[in-house]
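User: I've been trying to design a sequence by hand for this structure and keep getting stuck. Would you show me what you'd pick, starting by listing the structure so we're on the same page?

Assistant: Good idea, let's start from the same input. This is the structure you sent:
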């Protein structure tokens, strides 16, 4: 066996593995003998077929399998012995042609392309300055949060005549220009809308004051603000059919609902706080809400600092990658997701994630960051608590159901690796905070969101 390396540049190389008959002959011979003992060939008793016949029937297939396995093993050993820091896995070369002619030769060569991880130094220091926001919660934010909660816990009441914020439920039929029902049109469709959201002022005025049972004609597209998605979803039709709708619909009001804010009383406190200790009075309630908001915005500030650190790390490390190799590797190894047609569009996201991963790995190596079993379990707990809260489930940290969910997922290797990565990312960002300068800045809630939204708009986030 002979192994040669062709380095094309700092990020790309080809490994050529040459195999002669002497490399594989013994193993092929043993495999032929093994097959002979169990071969069931017509005209011969089980295991008694001549060796030459078995060789003729199975030899080429055995050689093909054996040289492929030997080349693959040799490639993996070469990477390990030479400590090659590769990205992805080796793939068949498109730079050097492999020589695999089972029928015409006894010598073979396999050429594998490899993409190398770029070499770079971590480039962050105390000269790099980021702001951490100290977000001030005022009475306005407390009142807004309470008002939102009162609406959320309020009741929907039947109303006689529609006002701006009422929800109007109606039955609609598509009409001809002369007001007759359109043959083949939309019939008996139930819709709902809110007067205050109607952009056309004339249509809005025509809706206000309507009562249950009232009928009026309207352009359904104008009623729903010419929003193709809303119209499609409301009427249950494809977006392509929206333009073909008649401009004349009969609208019959079937129901009018108004949300009445919940009154602040003991019943409301029990509904809001559940099994938690309920406030004794409105002053204590406001104090609880303020404390909750301060915790929320403290967490928001931490998350935003991490977001800024991510931008800093990417901006300070212009990492080049073996792009052409990685695109081919993705198409080869994830053929259900990546094709020659979509790879350029999808690769940008993969590239950004890999660049970030390389920087995190550099920080982890430099700071000797590890993830322990206890840290992985705790990360899984945080993961599941966040997941359940998305569905409105507030589960205690020591809940048996939560523990069961964690234990079940931690039996999956891929999930354990995912949680370990999250631990390392968290530690790496904490390590960066020690390397750079962080200045505290007091800021109002309104100004915080103004800055965040401006940043996201500038970066297309």
């Amino acid at each position: 066996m002979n192994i040669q390396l062709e380095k094309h540049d700092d990020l790309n190389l080809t490994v050529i593995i040459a195999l002669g008959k002497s490399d594989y002959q013994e193993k092929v011979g043993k495999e032929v003998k093994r097959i002979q003992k169990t071969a069931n060939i017509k005209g011969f008793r089980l295991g008694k077929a001549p060796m030459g016949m078995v060789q003729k029937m199975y030899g080429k297939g055995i050689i093909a399998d054996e040289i492929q396995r030997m080349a693959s093993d040799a490639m993996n050993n070469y990477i390990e012995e030479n400590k090659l820091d590769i990205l992805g896995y080796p793939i068949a070369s498109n730079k050097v042609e492999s020589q695999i002619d089972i029928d015409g030769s006894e010598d073979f060569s396999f050429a594998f392309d490899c993409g190398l991880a770029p070499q770079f130094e971590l480039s962050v220091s105390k000269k790099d300055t980021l702001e951490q926001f100290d977000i001030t919660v005022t009475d306005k934010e407390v009142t807004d949060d309470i008002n939102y909660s009162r609406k959320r816990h309020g009741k929907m009441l039947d109303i006689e005549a529609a006002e701006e914020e009422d929800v109007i439920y109606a039955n609609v039929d598509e009409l001809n220009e002369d007001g007759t029902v359109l043959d083949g049109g939309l019939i008996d469709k139930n819709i709902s809308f809110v007067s205050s959201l109607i952009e056309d002022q004339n249509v809005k005025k025509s809706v206000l004051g309507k009562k249950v049972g009232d009928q009026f004609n309207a352009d359904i597209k104008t009623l729903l603000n010419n929003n193709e998605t809303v119209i499609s979803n409301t009427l249950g039709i494809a977006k392509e059919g929206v333009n073909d709708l008649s401009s004349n619909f009969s609208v019959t009001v079937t129901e009018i609902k108004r949300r009445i804010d919940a009154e602040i009383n003991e019943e409301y406190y029990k509904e809001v706080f559940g099994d938690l200790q309920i406030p004794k009075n409105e002053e204590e309630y406001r104090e609880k809400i303020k404390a909750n908001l301060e915790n929320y915005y403290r967490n928001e500030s931490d998350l935003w600092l991490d977001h800024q650190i991510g931008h800093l790390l990417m901006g300070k490390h212009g990492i080049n990658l073996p792009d052409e190799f990685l695109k081919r590797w993705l198409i080869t190894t994830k053929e259900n997701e990546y094709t020659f047609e979509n790879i350029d569009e999808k690769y940008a996201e993969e590239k950004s994630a890999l660049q970030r991963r390389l920087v995190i790995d550099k920080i982890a190596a430099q700071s000797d960051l590890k993830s322990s079993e206890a840290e992985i379990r705790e990360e899984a707990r945080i993961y599941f608590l966040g997941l359940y809260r998305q569905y409105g489930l507030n589960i205690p940290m020591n809940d048996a159901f939560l523990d069961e969910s964690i234990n079940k997922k931690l039996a999956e290797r891929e999930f354990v690796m995912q949680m370990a990565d999250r631990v390392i990312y968290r530690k790496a960002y904490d390590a960066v905070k020690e390397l750079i300068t962080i200045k505290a800045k007091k800021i109002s809630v309104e100004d915080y969101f103004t800055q965040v939204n401006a940043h996201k708009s500038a970066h297309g986030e």
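That's my pick for every position. To get oriented when you compare it with your attempt: The domain at 129-142+281-458 is CATH 1.10.3120 (Trigger factor, domain 2). DSSP finds 14 helices and eleven strands in the chain.
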